[in-house]
Design brief:
Layout (H helix, E strand, L loop, with lengths): L5 E10 L2 E11 L4 E5 L6 H9 L6 E6 L2 E2 L10 E4 L11 H9 L8 H9 L15 H13 L5 E5 L7 H16 L3 E6 L2 H4 L5 E6 L2 E4 L2
Parallel strand pairs: 3-8, 3-9, 6-7, 7-8
Antiparallel strand pairs: 1-2, 1-4, 4-5, 9-10
Helix pairs in contact: 3-4
Amino acid sequence: MANACIEAHGIVKHFGRQEVLKGIDLTVEAGEAVGLVGNNGSGKSVLLKCLCGLMRPDQGEVRINGKGLGTDIQRAPEIGAVIEAPGFLPSKNAYDNLYALWVLNRRVPKENITRSIQTVGLDPKSRKRVGKYSMGMRQRLGLAQALMEDPSILLLDEPFNGLDKTGLKEMYTLIHGLGQQGATMIVASHNPGDIEQLCAKVYEIDAGRMERVR
């Protein structure tokens, strides 16, 4: 995977009168796996949305590989993200869901659809509708969607939610392997135990403020 770097400086985000992010600074070097720990409502998901361009901060700057997000570039194609509950068409199977996303820009070979589904341990030939999936299967499909376009940066919001013991082990192994391949990652979780072995650098976010805890 190609080198990548994320820089965030003075990120502030309001929803109405509520200040959700209060001057966040973060630098993630190429190939680095960074953990982000915080309770629900702490600002984790909002920060990840600002980092990938789904939201614009009210103040501050995000740079991806040296390019200003929202100024030099409007989106960062090198980012694959799973933020909050992935949204899929419940009446379609895994392959058809990812195909519907693939046709929007056709940036990668169609074979990537099958490969990404297999990578996360799902069956690309299964006709099972996503509406019948367990929470853990949806998490896997969300990760497949994030991997489909061969991103060098991954933003993973609560990737272990809904997984049983076996699923947790498999997802951990998968994410660890992506890190070993050189992916730059931010892995967010409300449970520090989920990421303490994955990430050498860990930050805690609480009430919109962030500090490094490891």
